[in-house]
Design goal:
Layout lengths: L1 H44 L4 H20 L9 H26 L1 E3 L6 H26 L5 H20 L7 H28 L2 H13 L6 E3 L2 H58 L4 E5 L14 E5 L11 E5 L4 E12 L2 E7 L11 E2 L3 E9 L4 H12 L1
Antiparallel strand pairs: 1-2, 3-4, 4-9, 5-6, 5-9, 6-7, 7-8
């Protein structure tokens, strides 16, 4: 009787799995049809609406996937450690690239002071990326062989490449090489990693990585100017490192899990120490660059009270009219714009004025007063220093 019940249960499970596999293929065919239509019609004839079309499609297919298969809660024991791996690698990436930025320079990003503008710009992508990763998870958890996983991953790669190269110039070999190395290859690497992590662990680590790496530029006032090729290299290294670490976790299970936790704690501690050391060096003026907080509104609208500015130390001979000069007349560093420069017998004299002031500064600044010139302003980053300064002034 027990054998008969077991056989019946096994037969039922086989039927359910076969039914689910058919449904998986149906959804993969639907996705393939959408990719073809998106490339042939939406991109060519309705380019201005392609983002909306993409958003609506992913909302609908994810909803139907949920209705068809349901959503099984992922209780994989590797989920917490995988999230820690992703967060740690992202922190290392940001620390590395921003440290490089202090030597090779920074560029502007999509940042806007108005949070509503930022949300307006990113919300379609948040919806698309979230739905893509949830749908990937729903489908992969109902796959029984590598064939269905590979098909879905290839479809994701194809769709992302179509979106990534839309509007790009593919008329010559040089452009094709640049697009291949900076867009296509990183997409293949990332999508392969997403499928591997989602299938073996959970969709959460993939979603966290994707949202951060794709959208962080909207929240940062400036970005390291590391160039397309260094960006492409990082785009290959990061998913590979995540894949490698997750694979080791799967291979060594609990024993390696304990070891990885210790390693991650050491990495996080090292990152924190490096960050604190860098911050201390910047605020102390040890490097060529020095960061200070702005305590007045004399330079509005260029920057305002509560902002922080990064000063590059230069010689008096390197200062030009129009530069924002950082100078010290014994009362602390002041940052005002140079409106006129005089030179007499080896001595430079700078006449300065705050952009928000009606008159020029009463004191002329000479060589010995020059500290440097302002290179970057970080909105609201100096408020903690300003508050501490005001607290001590009250006492």
């Amino acid at each position: 009787m027990c054998n008969a019940a077991y056989a019946a249960l096994h037969k039922l499970l086989v039927m359910i799995m076969k039914k689910n596999i058919k449904r998986v293929y149906i959804f993969e065919i639907i996705l393939l049809i959408f990719i073809i239509m998106f490339k042939a019609i939406a991109i060519k004839s309705y380019r201005e609406y392609s983002l909306i079309i993409n958003t609506i499609f992913w909302l609908l297919i994810t909803l139907f996937g949920y209705i068809t298969f349901g959503f099984s809660r992922d209780k994989n024991y590797l989920k917490p450690i995988t999230i820690k791996i992703v967060v740690t690698i992202l922190l290392l990436y940001f620390v590395s690239t921003y440290l490089m930025g202090f030597f090779i320079g920074f560029g502007y990003s999509h940042f806007d002071n108005n949070i509503l503008v930022i949300l307006k710009n990113i919300y379609p992508y948040v919806i698309i990326f979230t739905c893509m990763e949830i749908f990937r998870y729903i489908i992969l958890k109902n796959c029984t062989s590598k064939k269905e996983i590979i098909i879905l991953t290839i479809e994701y790669i194809a769709l992302n490449i179509i979106m990534g190269i839309s509007g790009k110039d593919l008329s010559n070999a040089k452009n094709i090489f640049v697009i291949t190395s900076t867009i296509i290859v990183p997409i293949i690497a990332n999508e392969s990693m997403y499928s591997y992590v989602t299938y073996n662990v959970s969709f959460a680590p993939s979603l966290i990585y994707r949202l951060v790496i794709e959208l962080y530029a909207y929240f940062m006032p400036f970005l390291p100017a590391i160039g397309d090729y260094l960006s492409a290299i990082f785009s290959l290294i990061l998913p590979f490192v995540i894949y490698y670490q997750v694979r080791k976790e799967i291979k060594y299970k609990d024993a390696y899990h304990r070891m990885a936790k210790k390693t991650l704690r050491r990495i996080v501690l090292a990152i924190m120490l490096a960050f604190v050391s860098l911050l201390a060096a910047l605020t102390s003026g040890f490097f060529k660059y020095h960061i200070i907080a702005i305590v007045s509104n004399s330079m509005k609208p260029t920057y305002k009270r509560g902002d922080a500015v990064i000063i590059e130390k230069v010689l008096a001979s390197e200062v030009n009219e129009g530069d924002i000069l950082a100078f010290d007349i014994g009362t602390g560093i002041i940052t005002h714009r140079v409106v006129k420069i005089k030179y007499d017998k080896g001595v430079y004299t700078f006449i300065t004025k705050g952009d928000n002031n009606e008159t020029i500064d009463a004191l002329d600044i000479t060589n010995e007063n020059v500290y440097g010139v302002v290179k970057y302003a970080l909105n609201n980053a100096g408020y903690p220093t300003v508050w501490i300064h005001e607290l001590f002034e009250r006492r």
